[in-house]
Amino acid sequence: MRRMMYEARRALASPVRNPRMAVVIGRLLGVAFIVCFGTGLYSHFLQDPLPWMRFPTRPASLYQVTQGTHIVAGIACFPLLLAKLYIVFPDLFQSPPVKSFLHLLERASIALFVGASLVQITIGLVNTYRWYPWPFPFREVHYALGWVLVGLLVLHIGIKLPIISRFWSGRAAAEHEATDAGSETATPADVEAVRLWGSRRPPGVTGRLIAWIDATPAVQLRTVTQTETKSLSRRGFLTTVGIACAAVVGLTAGQTFAPLDAANVFAPRKKGVGPQGVPVNRTAEQAKVTVSATAAGWLLTLAAGGVERSFSRAELEAMPQTEVELPIACVEGWSQLAVWRGVRLAELADLVGADPDAAFRLTSLEERGSFRQAEMGPEYVRDPLTLVALELNGETLDLQHGYPARMIAPGRPGVLQTKWLSRIEAITA
Predict the structure, then answer these.
(1) How confident is the model over 166-215, as pLDDT tens digits?
(2) Lowest CB count within 10 Å: 288, 303, 320, 351, which one?
(3) Which of 130, 151, 168 is the last residue of a domain?
């Protein structure tokens, strides 16, 4: 068995399968994980804030950037994780497979880390297409797995810290390779030393795998060629990983970042495609509001402190109108900048005597759905860019975008920009 394991490791040997390369790719993967975790936390608490939380409303495109970055970093994890697995794959054939109980725990934690990582990035990618072929709630599981992964990442770094410290520096890694008795490489400097010293062993080179007494041009050529070949192989591997990351990111990031829109080939949403030039996630038919939203007797009710007033669409249109340019940015990573026109929510709040520090609850005509109701903190309620929108891009709001009225506010996820509004009420503490 030990011989079979040895032969397997030898057959899988490659210049890129070394601790230094594992550290290099691991650093990039770690950064991607941390970026995903940080931006994911921000998105989570925007949707489920703790009572004391307040969020910035500027820049108005803040959520567009954070969630777009979240999706981009998550997509980049695919080639990075596959590259890391390629590098460490021979370690599966250690002999003996388990050396001690602590070693068993180490290998089990790594297996759990890899498995959880693959599940997390896969369900995250599938979510961008709004396809859920699993029996569990995506949002809750994705959030919980994020914490699990961060804990496993910290554990993994702690276990591998001696190796990470040793091979963090490229110079240290090169010195290790040049002096390792198990290495089959030698630097051009080694060859030059042999040429100068002839049949005597050069000082400071004990243990190097090079024919010190056979310093012929052929040996020099062979040694240099081996070294250069391995260097080229490593550069080629890193170049391949870099191209793969650039491809998967560049061909999808256009759904968020306008300069890359022309290269948006694989993302599920395309800028400018949809009613009034804006994509749609949840349609009026899916929400089952096609009748209630177009009813002649529709009214928007505002309530605060026992005061309640209702407004028809015509009455809202007769009020002072404000025009703003704000993005609609969704948790799936896509966003679209648009021009909205309607009544400032702060002005409507004043009409019912709402407290300046009051939060509001928004209710949609939808009868079911996780976001048929959404809460809005006072920082959004009183922001001059927050509107009860009646128009989109110079036209009457399309039914698919929330007709007869919807909410639009700076820095909020699209799922909280409630469509088909029916009631807005102050929340009592």
Answers:
(1) 988 866 555 555 554 344 444 444 444 444 444 444 444 444 434 433 44
(2) 320
(3) 168
